[in-house]
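TICKET: design request
STATUS: open
ATTACHED STRUCTURE:
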């Protein structure tokens, strides 16, 4: 499975469990328009508390993020990887866990030919969610997605899991409500 970073060794997990799929920009970190410089990244309020709450719920936490900035030549895949390793480390330091990151670097109008294509992994396609479910010990029942755009909701629907539209503000309060109703 390409375009994946799983710093916590989730492939070794023995028991199948549901997953909280999280969009990255506008959910975990502020969407400042293709954020990619670590020194400029800002976590949303309540992000670490939300991650701990999801960890405690027994779910894996997997990021699914469109990164057309790669296709647009704004930054490279190594930068995406570095940011994800940094995010995982920040979470770990706060006693929280992000199990893995999947990203899609493709776009139909890419500058670079090797990134110029439509991809079922790019949301609203369900490809990244399906990849997680197919290649790791994760189960659909009890899984859900949190995103900040309609394309996130469409990807969740196509994957057959609930989608929750996060409008900003406190992520932990938002997650608490979802888990209460689950
Ligand atoms: Mg987003």
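STATUS: resolved
RESOLUTION: sequence designed for all positions
ATTACHED SEQUENCE:
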């Amino acid at each position: 499975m390409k375009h994946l970073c799983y710093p916590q060794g989730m492939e070794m997990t023995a028991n199948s469990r549901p997953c909280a799929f999280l969009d990255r920009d506008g959910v975990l970190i502020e969407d400042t328009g293709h954020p990619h410089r670590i020194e400029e990244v800002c976590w949303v309020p309540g992000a670490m508390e939300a991650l701990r709450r999801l960890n405690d719920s027994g779910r894996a936490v997997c990021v699914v993020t469109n990164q057309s900035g790669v296709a647009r030549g704004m930054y490279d895949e190594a930068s995406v990887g570095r940011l994800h390793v940094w995010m995982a480390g920040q979470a770990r330091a706060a006693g929280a866990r992000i199990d893995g990151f999947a990203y899609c670097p493709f776009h139909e109008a890419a500058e670079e030919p090797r990134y110029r294509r439509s991809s079922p992994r790019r949301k609203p396609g369900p490809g990244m969610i399906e990849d997680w479910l197919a290649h790791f010990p994760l189960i659909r029942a009890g899984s859900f997605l949190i995103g900040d755009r309609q394309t996130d909701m469409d990807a969740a629907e196509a994957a057959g899991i609930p989608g929750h539209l996060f409008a900003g503000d406190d992520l932990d309060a938002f997650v608490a409500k979802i888990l209460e109703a689950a």
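CLOSING REMARK: The first helix runs from residue 47 to 56. The CA atoms of residues 22 and 67 lie 14 Å apart.
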